Amino acid sequence: MKPKSIILTKDQIPRKWYNILADIKMNPPLGPDGKPISPEMLAPVFPMNLIEQEVSSDRWIDIPEPVLDVLAIWRPAPLTRATAFEKALGTPAKIYYKNEGMSPPGSHKPNTAVPQAYYNKVFGIEKITTETGAGQWGSALSFACAQYGLTCKVYMVRISFDQKPYRKAMMETWGGKCIASPSPETKAGRDALERDPNTPGSLGIAISEAVEAAVSDTTGKTRYSLGSVLNHVMLHQTIIGLEARKQFEIAGDYPDIVIGCAGGGSNFAGLAFPFVQDKINGKAIEIYPVEPKACPSMTRAPFAYDHGDTAGYTPLLPMHSLGHNFVPAPIHAGGLRYHGMAPTVSQLINEGLLTPQSVGQLAAYEAGVLWARTEGFIPAPETTNALAQVVKEAKQAKEEGKEKTIVVCFSGHGLLDLGAYDKYLSGELFDYSLDDAEIEKFTQVLDSYPKPQDLKSV
Amino acid sequence: MKPKSIILTKDQIPRKWYNILADIKMNPPLGPDGKPISPEMLAPVFPMNLIEQEVSSDRWIDIPEPVLDVLAIWRPAPLTRATAFEKALGTPAKIYYKNEGMSPPGSHKPNTAVPQAYYNKVFGIEKITTETGAGQWGSALSFACAQYGLTCKVYMVRISFDQKPYRKAMMETWGGKCIASPSPETKAGRDALERDPNTPGSLGIAISEAVEAAVSDTTGKTRYSLGSVLNHVMLHQTIIGLEARKQFEIAGDYPDIVIGCAGGGSNFAGLAFPFVQDKINGKAIEIYPVEPKACPSMTRAPFAYDHGDTAGYTPLLPMHSLGHNFVPAPIHAGGLRYHGMAPTVSQLINEGLLTPQSVGQLAAYEAGVLWARTEGFIPAPETTNALAQVVKEAKQAKEEGKEKTIVVCFSGHGLLDLGAYDKYLSGELFDYSLDDAEIEKFTQVLDSYPKPQDLKSV
């Protein structure tokens, strides 16, 4: 029997994260006055040890032992050859996937939820607030907080709260508290309810509520946590790619193409950044972040300063953005329905180190169903976007008769998203197109902000 | 970092199943005439290669390479030390769990679904029918059939079909066809609908429909498949315990107590039988199958001949049985709501090699929530029953100040059963008790059947 997976031993697990900030120049985040913000300005929101990581340019950062102990619940994660998927596509390409669906919440999110909970704990914090859309991030943070005895409060966008009661049950099984946003508990929530008592809520409002709940705790024992976009989140996720790089070494192989879906950018960055490092050091390799055509921040939106949230409470971040008021079509990949893109990923696109791609919803589910019927694991809706790109590359390799090596981040399983598969199989899902005028309408707001510099690091 | 899991390499995966029939005597299954049935009588229902396994007394049976190739999607499964659970219980006991929740459908069921699909394929069968209650077995068989290009049709008890639409979506994502039972497609279904058009259905009716659909296909290309109870199902599951035994060898440890939940008996048998072999060969070890107090076939029902299904279509099997008309209380561990117990497990109880235990529903969920908050993975409702027994043993070890080694089968995750956790956390779940008169009422039917012999093998 040829081994299907390359499994690292427990002592081969990476002990340091890779920090891409050591290798690229970045535009700084800006405050409301248009000037670069200082770390101290973030202190009411995040614990200082995480702020230090956010701004660090050390290339390697130690993973603390108590974090490794918890990651060991499901890590190292397998790197698996998708032989049955290859066969079904009749491609000469070798397709490997890094399986991040084995964690207790079923996605890559706990790779950062665990260290974030740990650093908060060490800093003396007792309670963490956050927002969640579809529920993946809120679940991961609830799981992580249970590991360190922290209280976790999740503001969940009301429409998802109502549609996905199992996500709330999941968070509460781990001891988290999940409430529908907008809630009457915060000023931001009360204001939103006053404007529209029947509002379905939004990620923007939920972020505002979570931040307000953190900074308004006068004991100083509460902080806020974000599951994507920021530098320290990308840093924590690099364990994915660092493991994969070791696994390729063991397999005696190396990817020609690296693929991951990208909403805020964290699972993509997690797999890709260590390979970006190799590319900076001269390796010939293509690296593709993949987004839905319905939310094309990387492929069709400008690189600009914009707020991370809809309400405009966060600092201005340098990123590819559709504008913070952009409302994407109701595609089922909730984790990819974000107007912006991580500043690090955005900068790497500008540098030409990444080549963004976009796929339609139907092609995504088609790839997802083929994956389930061959490789077994049912992919998360987000993950199907990456798989659709893999299908494109595999078909191209077939046409060209080239034996390419592809690696994709299988960011999570879809066992809590089976309703979307049901709709796809019943022919009730659609592709969405977006015309230039609509993008222009939403990106106009960016004109009023400072422009990021066109930095070249490499 | 101390390794949390013992991971076998791919070449350490067992290549043979252990057949307990080599080591114990069994009463034969009986036909409608009260005489032992011959293998040929089962030929319209199962393919002959599986029937041969059902009656084989070879101690070791080779696992075919194409089966190993598919099992390699998620096997070998980790044996993990539940250090955080131990710590929360303050016990000197060492608790290990064999994690069967990593398979694509999330339970141990594909360990037998995969070889069953394979043997059917090899025998020239094109379509497999089965029934499913809560949906775990139907999901596993749909997954397995997709691997070998077989058609899968699942008759799902109507009440579960309506309550758990995601299970249907799961099966259909894998290409299976799932319909509510009773259906108008079979005589058994039509009769049931005529008796009561609004019937919620039952596992008994669903079995009758699936068997009828298989045997009435005049092309001879359809067979029926069962997910528990039978000898060949237990055989396929022994890969769990064979892996675990190797992993204990690597860890330099050996269990004092082996624990698994038991409905039909297959996950329990899978972990336990290799250790039963050791016990027969002289090892001092306690082995506990655990059932819910609401469905106490092992702890309170007689050893007798009874039908495997409610309608009485199957042969008479020698087993601990509450009577085939027994209707258990609506506990959420759907996989444990079965009136009988696998004949092999039942015989081992008679031999004194196993010591059955029972737990209440609230103790089970209490253990399940503690597990989720410590070890991370949310257990399936069935699995929580085994965990409740682990808690009992761990507390006893604490009282006695003894360092015992416990191993438990973590039969599956509960990500499709979060509604039950929601109810538990909201105080809406109950314990059920069963008085002797009720058990007597249901077991009276057994008086009309032949009596199995009191065989002593060891």
From TrEMBL, chains A, B:
Record pathway: Amino-acid biosynthesis; L-tryptophan biosynthesis; L-tryptophan from chorismate: step 5/5
GO (cellular component) term, any one: cytoplasm
Top enzyme category: lyase
InterPro entries recorded: Trp_synth_b-like, Trp_synth_b_CS, Trp_synth_beta/beta-like, TrpB-like_PALP, TrpB-like_PALP_sf
E.C. no: 4.2.1.20
Cofactor(s) this protein requires: pyridoxal 5'-phosphate
Subunit structure: Tetramer of two alpha and two beta chains.
UniProt-recorded name of the protein: Tryptophan synthase beta chain
Lineage: Bacteria, Pseudomonadati, Thermodesulfobacteriota, Desulfobacteria, Desulfobacterales
